[in-house]
## 1
Amino acid sequence: MPFSIPKEEYMMSGHTACAGCGATLAMRYVMKAMGENTVVTVPASCWAVIPGNYPNTALKVPFIYTPFASTGATISGIREALDEEGKEDYNVVGFAGDGGTADIGLQALSAAMERGHNVFYIMYDNEAYMNTGIQRSSSTPFGAWTTTTPVGKDRVYKRENKKVVADLMMAQKVPYVATASIAFPEDLIRKIQNAKKIKGPKFIQILSPCPPGWYFNAENTVKIARLAVETRIFPLYEYAEGKFVLYKNPNPLPVEKYLEIQGRFNHLSPEEIRTIQENVNRRWEELLEREKGKVIP
Amino acid sequence: MVLVPTAYAPSSNNKTSSWRTTRPVIDYSKCTRCMICWKFCPDVAIGVTFGEKLDYPNERFSKLEAPFINYDYCKGCGICASECPFDAIDMVQESEM
């Protein structure tokens, strides 16, 4: 059979990720698209523990650990050093979780994008600090249970909406911004190959479901990532050199389909689910407006 | 001169087969070799095999590359079984093997 994604593997077996981890699928597809001449940087995140203890590495390319707040600074430095050595064909990739992107690493990310280094910043979005035990991040969606927004008698689940870093990057006029999903690897790899043609900073946000943190069975990882796109909770779009293109699925599913198979949304009442549906519809309308060329403030 | 700690051991030295409680088993008489299971394996534990004497839905499929599961690394998450469009992968309890 013809293979729909590149056959070469740059991620090795034997890593210590949980069974059914979405973040490892994200890294596998990103590395397939990047190829051999790549340098990967990770801050503190799940990917800092997935390769295993000290002598182990799960990637066949250079892999550099960096403090939580400094992914953007590290990839900027690596890029300039490689350019100085004449290795301009190398891809420099920062691969950070949502905590290291939306909360702690945001200023370094914003600064690296503003300075215009020719780097990739990949955010794998599992919607909480999963590595340290499911604490709320600013990328956690409305209504989700986490250990710092617990649901007991008082029901203090997360009341704030998700901060979408890809939207922030578009507001900053980064040359290439895209969202992608592990359920659509061909689309993810096509987006990275498009981004490679652009000289400048590139930002891609990948939704990667987390079985222990989102409370679903490990076999449903890809199914949930697909439902997030089909229910329009996580819209897929591409913003390249000022042109915005939104992936439009003709028959959207109701958000219940996505919420009902995840334990972290188990406590939601019908009114709260209706609120989530309204928010999803409003955001979709805003994205359609943006595609027509109207800039959303 | 090494300025930063560098590591060389590949993670594939570690076998993760003991993490598993159920194992996927491919029924090659239903498998159409679409390789969707290979595409969605988070542990890179599904490989591609050539020219082996495997079962097939009909003999035209016997010339195609087929997936095989590397049980040294499979963690038994079951993504392959749930994504297989032809229900050709069953999850079997390890205790029954």
Note: The radius of gyration of chain B is 16 Å.
## 2
Amino acid sequence: MDNITSRHDPRFEVTMYKYMGVENSHKLDFYEQHGGYQTAKKALTTMQSVDIVNEVKASGLRGRGGAGFPMGVKWSFMPPVDGRQRFIVCNADESEPGSTKDRFVLEDDPHQLIEGMIIAGYAIQATLGVIYIRGEYHLGYTRLYDAINEARAKGYLGKNVLASNFDFDLILHRGAGAYICGEESALMNSFEGYRANPRLKPPFPAQAGVYGFPTSVNNVTSIASGVHIIAKGADWFKSMGTQDSSGFHHVQISGPAVRRGVYEVPMGITYREIIFDLAGGVTEPVKAFIPGGSSCPMFPFTDEYLDLTMEYGVVAKAGSMMGTGGIILIPEDKCIVDALANVVHFYAHESCGKCTPCREGVSTWLPKMYAKLLAGLGESGDLELLEDVSHNIRGRSFCPLADACIMPVQASIKHFRHEYEYIIEHGKSMYAKKSRWQE
Amino acid sequence: MKVKVNGIELELAPGTSAIDAVFAAGSDVPYFCSHEYMSPVGSCRMCLAKIGAPRKDRATGNWVLDEETGEPQIFWFPNPMATCTTAIMEGMVIETEAEEAVKAQRGMVEMTLINHPLDCPICDKGGACELQDRAYEYGEGISRFEFDKRHQEKHHQLSELITLDRERCIHCKRCIRFFEEVPGDEVLDFIERGGHTYIATVEEGLESNFTGNITDLCPVGALLDRTSRFKGRNWEYEHTITSSLDDASGSAIVLDSRTGRLERIKAELNTQVNKLWIDDSTRFGYEYVNSSERIKTPLIRKGDNLEAASWQEVSEFIADKLAKLAQKEAAIVLRADSTLEEGYAAKNLAKILETGQIDHYPRQLASVIPNNSASLNDLASSDAIFVIGDVSQNVPIVDLRIKDALKGVAPPEMFEHGVPIADLRLKERMIRKKEILTVAAPYNVDLMRHAGQAHIYEANSEEAIFKALTKIANGEDSSVAAMSNEQAEALVKRLNEANNAIIIYDGFSLASPAAAIAARNFANAVGAKEIILGQMANSYGLEAIQVLPSHERYGYAEIMQGSAKALIISELNPANNSQYAQNLKELELLVVHSIFENETTALADVVLPAKSGYEKQGTIVNLEGRLLEVNAAPIDAGQAQDFEFLAASIIAALGKEGKEDLASLAHKAIRKQFGVDSKKLDPEGDLKPLKPRANNKAKLHIQSTNIGNALIVPTMLRLEYIDKNPHLLAERGAAKLTMNSIDADANGLKNAEIVSLDVAGIKRSFSVQIKDSVPAGLWLIPALPEQAIGLLELDRASLKKELEPA
Ligand SMILES: Cc1cc2nc3c(=O)[nH]c(=O)nc-3n(C[C@H](O)[C@H](O)[C@H](O)COP(=O)(O)O)c2cc1C
Ligand code: SF4
Ligand code: SF4
Ligand code: FES
């Protein structure tokens, strides 16, 4: 990521990302000087937990981890308090290729996340919070680690937080390098020390989460959004975005854009605005873009799709997903088969191995098919076979990881079938260009 | 709830899984990961079907109706659903034969097979393989996968008993789930991920008493029983369903035999007893029957030698000798795993010989018949269990059924297709209700790991413990050995308040009649049912039909000390005791019915070849009071016969044949005593618990003492055969002498050192095992059939080192 430029976008006042990249923004002093922990204080000392849940519900905030489930509604699924331990879990495993929005919060503004966790914990009456952070996020880990200690020393964590009679503490847990640990139930298994396989649902985390106790799992920027919703109110949040998708989101642009980076934007903005206005356009011809991280089906780089507004419903209707908001641009002269081989390789490597279609289809068969095509050994029938096997995998797996691989594959065939046909017919790809990492 | 499966409407209980609905409707759907009595996990994705359900309008609460038909509209799930993890809903429609379901199933078979080596021609599972069958039924017949298959280790020895072929594994996770869910021993897991995933142990070996079950439940030939590896093809085996004589549970097993040899034992379903599980001794402890050392013909003494003879010849010889004896001079002793029929035969023979010197052994002073008996299914749904003793070694299945109770899920209702395939009440890693289980024993026993409360008490304090607990139950003050007052009170309270409290005790309590009475009184005081763990398969039955001495002068120990002039003894080796050997030499007639030669056959006048428990036909009564059928597999055992044949031959030679043969006498006697037709027993047995007799004349026992420095402890292994069970021996090692490190140091002993020791007259060899969980000063010695459980005074000076550990 070269720059973060959204702070300079005049149309929009940045909140969560306000202090990204500012020196010492990760320190408690800095955070306190800029109003830090005042919202937690307000929440814990002047609001009932149910008020917070209702405020978040009213804001319409949808989960930023990918699935887009409304956070307030998820919180309201927590069973009544019955004396058992309850957990709030922050999913900071951010591993979806093309996604990097959580990283900046973790590295540059960890106290904001801690404050969000205190509020979230209070909202669902969980006295323990878990932040499960991706193993590779070393800087984020050390900063968060230090920040938690700072917060604890200052009484923001521990017994009687902010003199409110509410006890709350945080456990920081590092992953060990598996994408599947971002799936909430695999995350909980991993946290408990088990193999990171997704669990059967139901029961959902609210019924039986960490160690079987009531739990809510929420993404980093979902949790951090809570701070601003409580600080400024649901109406303020809803003043941004649309009916379907309220508030702001963080789009992350990678690929041949002039200004690659993370942008805090109001929902409802068009992809054209993001790519051309914020990111400054493209540096070379682009043929497709992925709207929300590698698992989301790609769109051709045409007016029809560029003018879509960034809303959960709109993107879904157009055949893809909002995902994490990680926009990936695919250059014109990048062989689509090669590009997808890369995507498939990722999911093949990350399959947890629990279920047959993913372990055998995604993790074993697909990479071999792509390797065959790229080696110039494609034969007639291979494309149809790829389509049929993809069909046999899609919608049959235990968790969405297999679909996360299949949907991009299917989209690539749908939009760029001729590239597949070319490579099969000619034994080489339509475009000679190799990926930068391949050179 | 009403559901419709492939057009058939049926009414099922809420909570039923869609896969059970499919089978209940008489339809079929393939499945690999689901398994009876284990949690559904939905990982194989094989059981896919097209599923839909009607919906209620949120506002009105009425069904949303189809505009054309006026019927509730069916809303189909967008994708085929795994039926095993889907609970039925009112009005659900399940279609396993819809085009998209069939396509999904085919696709899944193809993917399941892409990494499978398809080496069926050399696979022990071939012909009895779920993958083979399902691929044949639901697959396309050809594979479109043209690449190299995954190569992994093909002969990974998980233990001496089990080999894992990692290429054949289809990752259904049944084996892993089994260990976690059933015995609670987490010894297996997947390692690596994605296409590289394979099964492995965390540490070397499989630390569990139930490992063999994974060879049954593996849907492919990935987990194989090493005792039977490459011994035969499945279609060549004769399958004989029978009850195991390995312990007092009478677990259902299948004997797979071929060309006169027993080649494998598998678990058979008995929903009342062992469900689908058996312990490793029951499964792997059979190899001795194929031993070339078996006695195959009757033998008769000619000078110093035993020479082969016919049954006719030796029967006449025996009859001649017996005819010369006066009343009460002959003695008959059966082993406690003999069948009821053998027991009646012995009684009839004793009657003809006019002797009351008849007994079965091993047997203890107190009765093994509970006053208020609990069944094993009662146990599985119990809400308060107090165990005193070592269940896991005595009767391992009882250990498993206790673990059922800890899950708090009662035994499932049966379907017409049998046990639910996917019982949605079961989950992976269920939180166990440990608090309902209290375990006390004189040393650290395995079940303590699973207990809410565990107490190690000083050996031989069973009576005191039960008495003290009874006082507390009666509202008096008392203190209980090894328990705090709060613990004791909490235990009594829990048992008192439970709906289904159960007390389980074993030989440690039976060794003293007073302790057994105290146990019974305590059970009464808290309103608990009892389970008593007899030492052998038919301990209950032989006591019930009174294969017992007519007077306390005539018990096993007295017979061995010279109370008789002639002895007919079946499958016991009393001459391993040097003192008894002296007495046996004095006998005018010693007839030994035995499978193998031993110290006792060496003294015999006549040796008769005995049938093993896999070759007999008959009936036993398990510890619940359940009559179970024992069936004979076609095993070549020469002229071996059971005790009924032996008795009949002698009676015939005595010229005392009655109107009826022994078999019909036994048949009648069983009907009279238990009220069942032993020829028409239910396949799961007939539960006919009796009451203990008020006046049990059989009271003799010489080994048990009130003080002692060693404890004969139960062992799940049949040590008398272990030398001829090579695989089990390799896995489990020689008999262990277990002691605290203080004792080991005092005697200069190291772990695994081989020693010999005189155990109350029997010279035995052991491998030393040092465990600090054993109280200092107490040595633990696993029981032999000739040595009932209990405390004894050991001459520690007789200890000799035989071999340093490697
Ligand atoms: C394969 C897979 C990977 C996922 N990875 C992440 C992740 O890295 N971070 C995340 O927040 N959510 C991830 N999710 C989504 C989570 O399961 C869960 O929906 C989310 O954490 C809920 O938080 P939210 O409601 O705030 O979005 C993943 C889901 C799947 C199926
Ligand atoms: S789709 Fe199946 S194998 Fe893949 S990650 Fe999910 S559960 Fe694991
Ligand atoms: S070894 Fe057998 S039981 Fe275990 S996961 Fe593999 S196929 Fe299933
Ligand atoms: S997914 Fe394996 S049986 Fe249903």
Note: The first strand of chain B starts at residue 2 and ends at 5.
